[in-house]
Amino acid sequence: QVQLVESGGGLVQPGGSLRLSCAASGFTFGSSAMSWFRQAPGKERELVATISSIGGITNYADSVKGRFTISRDNAKNPLYLQMFSLKPEDTAVYYCTAGRIYWGQGTQVTVSS
Hints:
Elements: E1 3-7, E2 10-12, E3 18-25, E4 34-39, E5 46-51, E6 58-60, E7 68-72, E8 78-83, E9 92-98, E10 102-103, E11 107-111
Parallel strand pairs: 2-11
Antiparallel strand pairs: 1-3, 3-8, 4-5, 4-9, 5-6, 7-8, 9-10, 9-11
């Protein structure tokens, strides 16, 4: 059974940092490209970052370039999203996905003073 479980969300002040984690199981993690998406209230789900199966290629939405870093540990199966310089517009539910086929339940990130 495929499971993706996100954690690490919370409330943070503007300019702060958070690291999201996604624990993956039930599929060949090391063979799957992985992504983070987010969905803000009233908006469509949008792609935040993608990482290739062996981690050599990453891509980011323009809105997060230079502030967010996606990474993975193929030995232990977590996916990470390190977020720096957070802005109120980063407030959303963040989801990890394996190939846009399997999805986690999401973790809430709220950036507010």
